Predict the 3D structure of the following.
Amino acid sequence: MSQEESPRVIRALEKLSEHGWVPLRAMAALLGYGELRGIYQRQRGRNAIPTIKVGGQYRVYEDVVVKTLEHAPPDKREDAQMILRMYRAIQKREKHNA
């Protein structure tokens, strides 16, 4: 994960923790897509991420985010594992503060 991707990832994880879902565009940040268009190309293939359209936004819910990160491709697996650890730390912090 590069320095420029870090803030996007952290914002996405905080939103996921707060709301229980992230927009599909934030999922692109979590998966390390440099171009946001990459996530839409993935949605056309057989590895599409399950989403639910609410209004004009495609939402990816927490269970799908975790499952997708756990089954990341080998070239992105290390980053995905780090993101999962960050997410669990955010959850733990929020639980402790509640």
Q: What stands out?
A: Residues 6-97 form one domain. The mean pLDDT is 89. The CA atoms of residues 1 and 79 lie 6 Å apart. The longest helix spans residues 77-97.
